[in-house]
## 1
Amino acid sequence: MLNKTLAGLAKGLQQGEFSSVELAQAYLQRIKNEDSKYNSFITVTEELALQQAAAADASRAAGNAGIMTGLPIAHKDIFCTQGVRTSAGSKMLDNFISPYDATVIRKFNAAGSVTLGKTNMDEFAMGSSNESSFYGPSRNPWNTQHVPGGSSGGSAAAIAAGLAPAATGTDTGGSIRQPAAFCNLTGLKPTYGRVSRYGMIAYASSLDQGGPMAQTAEDAAMMLNVMAGMDPLDSTSVDRAVPDYTSNLNAPLAGLKIGLPKEFFSASLNPDIAALVHAAVKEYEALGATVKEVSLPNTALSVPAYYIVAPAEASSNLSRFDGVRYGYRCKDPTDLEDMYKRTRGEGFGTEVKRRIMVGTYALSEGFYDAYYKKAQQIRRLIQQDFVRVLSEVDVIMGPTTPTPAFRLGEKTSDPVEMYMEDIFTLSLNLAGLPGMSIPCGMSNGLPVGLQVIGNYFAEEKLLNVAHKFQQATDWHTLKPAGL
Ligand code: GLN
């Protein structure tokens, strides 16, 4: 019963091969037995899962089951979950029991899915390796000496280890796509505004976007059907019809125009990754696509621009954690200022403090024009590059990451080296565009991801492009040894 895709599990439930309760129990048992190796969950919601599973079985018996009814999902611990600790990977929120559900959680619950637990993540989603988590790093099931990627590393590790069939993630600068690439998964970062951010703990509000992480494009489409849509509680969510993302998966790709940005294939790209991405593009040509070289000339500027804009927004968003209203408060403060200082000094980790300092500096009088305003101008140039290229091609393809999963500790001493890992993913968030990572091969036993970028609200096209590739190849079906 385990090791199936969401679509496979949905079929098993429909045909009565197993019940939702049996399915939830099997996953909970596997988490208990195996997760000490991966540290992929911060909280396992056993009681909630069994209660939801029993309700799912009851609604199936009453003839009310939908496609998601009884399907187990793990949620990144950034989505507020009523009655459950929601930590964002931080000591600051270690004691925070959310009094309400994020819209994404509410929608999965309404669709009848079963919450297995809350997954590990970089603190406040700041990181590319899951190593900034207060709960310790999560580990890559393909090689536990390596990182699973970040910030949605726990979601990726849980799926790759078979501890959850699918999971939610969030992507501010690559946090769905990069861990998907590192763990051989299919991850989709939707267009900014496609998925509600309500109840998703804010990192950088103009960049943050929730999305699915799954074993296949078909599963990601099933999840996006649940997640997408306008939400009156999120003023940046977009009022636009939600198609059935599963209905166009098999559309033929004849005539698909693919652009390959020359800046994505520079000398710093790992040669195995370059070769595998080119092989994947060949596969698309065999499926009827045409390919041309394009240029995104401001690609190199995405790292410096992002690492001003994101910390600037973070410094503002994280000012709410002051020990007054909720979350961590230092012991025995002598006065208000002492409480602020020690609460934030003790509650935040190193990377979060670094971002708050950079962001506060960039927004301060006298530096604002030189840093924040400049970064916003570069952001516009990056967006214009994409708009121009996407008027000539249907999708842009390239690597998701410059290297496969690196070793734990390999990049922690040099933040800039860690930030360079995001070179191919950040620009989409700056532009608000959707993108996917899909498995396209292996390098020394570690997975490699192909990134597919589409125009605004082209999620349906991206899922179609990913699904056709998965019909023609079986990279996405590979599992870590022993699983
Ligand atoms: N690695 C990037 C950062 O640290 C992106 C993280 C994310 O997408 N949440 O900011």
## 2
Amino acid sequence: MIAPLFDRARAPKHPELVVFRGVRAVDPAAGLDALIDVIVERGLIARVGAGAATQEELTSERVLVVDALGRWLLPAFVDLHAHFREPGQEYKEDIGSGLAAAAAGGFAHVCCMPNTKPINDTRAITEMMVARAASVGGTRLHPIAAITKGQRGEELTEMADLREAGAVGVSDDGVCVMSSVVMRRALEYARTFDMPVIQHCEDHGLTAGAQMHEGAVATRLGLRGWPRVAEDAIVARDLLLAEATGARYHVAHVSTEGSVRLIREAKSRGIRVTAEVTPHHLMLTDEAIVGYRTFCKVNPPLREARDIEALRAALADGTIDAIATDHAPHSPLEKDCEMQEASPGMVGLELVVPVLLELVHAGVLPLARFVDALTRAPSKIVGLEAPSLVVGARAELTLVDPDLEHVVSAASLRSKSKNSPFLDRTYRGRVELTMLGEQFAFLGGEHR
Ligand code: DOR
């Protein structure tokens, strides 16, 4: 029997205060990890501290008391990398369903990649996405616009315009900017606004026809492989370009031990590089694809144990700054088919907490780093104010029950798409609610 957080039937509709009582509040950016009360008033954090809620408040009918003993209250999360398919492929995901999935996953902010149809390479599309998201409410959407027109790798987009319209970074994610000349110009142009250039690192010549990681498993399955060096070679070139231009360079979905080594070395020399890693690259090897499981086809591909080890160590020590979902919804049309025909990617927004708490529980990833990699670190990369638990901050809060055992099923997902190899397993820990401003954007299985 799961103890309810509060009695919904008797809860005030418009409470004067919301009190999270006896939570473990964790906000590493504020040096906070303590058992306290956190009090929210009109969408702002009003007070925090042991016994901060008075007896009068705890018994008032105008106060909503969330009895959260044993739960973790965290700053709500920021995702640097999601694919909502609006405009163009709303049957996979639209901005409404994507934002609902984000709220259920504990996210306050989501950055959306430009490989929509048409591609987000103009002010009009960036503005449309921002306006649509504002009309939905809840989790906030921040577009990442294309580096090149049509993501063709040739002509730069009007980055100044895109930035003014709300873009927080540029990327051709899904494809790599192969030309060194174009990449150099992109870095120089973006540097003038201090915008990050986010690269999908893949030498397409080295990955032509590839379905999965190149190695023994690919050989056994008779599938063409994607060698590590196709990622490493682009990371190495781009780091040289970032050094030469002084621009801010961000590596999307790092998957190899070689990339980790290069990024670590570049950081030690003061190059302005940041990086993200996905939950699936931290948890699954290429063995997961055995049985021709198209849900495990993803770009970059799932690698080997030694890559996972390097990625985990780099996330723990901060070489990899952020956790990003690479939420990539696809319908059965794109997944229930031959491997060669299948689209790469998996949904991820609603699985971060259940999947990655395994690393936290096992002591592989310190809780403070887990929280930092989902809050302060990604916010800094795209220039957003980080969600935080300090007094005066906007209430952007995620309540996690770290010990609740539960099964994540396709039916439980808010996302329109269900393409994940992580479904139908038992997990320890889940998001209980997401509070954004004055609203519960997600509440124990309900949306808004
Ligand atoms: O697996 C992936 N899916 N990797 C990408 O880079 C693109 C994404 C998508 O858009 O489906």
